[in-house]
């Protein structure tokens, strides 16, 4: 009688029929990546608002210094190089993960993290120098919008570095399993997204900012 179950009318019914009513958990394939794409689209809206605010306020100097007087393009170019190189090294990490080489993946992730920290270090130096010169975010609408846009991007890079370190710990503990490969892909999209945003910042804020 192990294969027989009673139905609603008290009659015997095959146990397989009873299983038809069981609800099974279902995780859609690539559902995490789709959800992360949606998050990135929402982040695009955030940066779009900040870019628009800078476009409106970027020439309101209130008698204070302009971008041409404040921006050090050589320093910003070096910082841009750090971030772009970090994107390349992350690409190497992804290639090594596809080859199932854990140690090489960790090595390239560590190099990526160092470039990210170098970028943040120069950005903090830039901000502290501006504030020391009396060009803080409260000085003018131009500087308020500048600090908001560039600072938000820097905050994202900080989150990316923390995420990177956390992922390295997970990789060291659990290896290149399916879950960690998915996390690597999500962080890859996030990191390259920050590169694209920074190219916009470098062009729209710094390069155009030094124009008369």
TrEMBL record:
Protein name: Cytochrome bo(3) ubiquinol oxidase subunit 3
SUPFAM superfamilies reported for this sequence: Cytochrome c oxidase subunit III-like (SSF81452)
Record has Transmembrane helix as a keyword: yes
Subunit record text: Heterooctamer of two A chains, two B chains, two C chains and two D chains.
A single GO cellular-component term on record: plasma membrane
Lineage of the species this protein comes from: Bacteria, Pseudomonadati, Pseudomonadota, Betaproteobacteria, Burkholderiales
Role, per record: Cytochrome bo(3) ubiquinol terminal oxidase is the component of the aerobic respiratory chain of E.coli that predominates when cells are grown at high aeration. Has proton pump activity across the membrane in addition to electron transfer, pumping 2 protons/electron.
Compartmental location: Cell membrane
Membrane topology: Multi-pass membrane protein
Stretches assigned to the Heme-copper oxidase subunit III family profile domain: 29-210
Family: Belongs to the cytochrome c oxidase subunit 3 family.
GO biological process: aerobic electron transport chain
Keyword annotations: Cell membrane, Electron transport, Membrane, Oxidoreductase, Transmembrane, Transmembrane helix, Transport
Protein's UniProt keywords contain Transmembrane: yes
């Amino acid at each position: 009688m192990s294969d027989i179950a009673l139905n609603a009318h008290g009659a015997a019914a095959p146990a397989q029929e009873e299983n038809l009513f069981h609800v099974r958990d279902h995780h859609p394939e690539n559902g995490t990546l789709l959800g992360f794409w949606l998050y990135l689209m929402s982040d695009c809206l955030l940066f779009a608002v900040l870019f628009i605010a800078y476009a409106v306020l970027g020439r309101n100097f209130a008698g204070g210094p302009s971008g041409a007087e404040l921006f050090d393009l050589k320093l910003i170019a070096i910082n841009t190089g750090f971030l772009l190189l970090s994107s390349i090294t992350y690409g190497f990490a992804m290639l090594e993960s596809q080859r199932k080489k854990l140690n090489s993946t960790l090595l390239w992730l560590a190099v990526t993290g160092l470039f990210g920290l170098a970028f943040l270090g120069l950005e903090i130096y830039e901000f502290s120098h501006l504030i020391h010169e009396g060009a803080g975010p409260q000085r003018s609408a131009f500087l308020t919008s500048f600090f908001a846009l560039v600072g938000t991007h820097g905050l994202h890079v900080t989150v990316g570095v923390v995420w990177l370190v956390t992922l390295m710990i997970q990789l060291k503990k659990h290896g290149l399993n399916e879950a960690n490969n998915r996390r690597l892909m999500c962080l890859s999209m996030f990191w390259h997204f920050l590169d694209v945003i920074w190219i916009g910042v470098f062009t729209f804020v710094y390069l155009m900012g030094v124009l008369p």
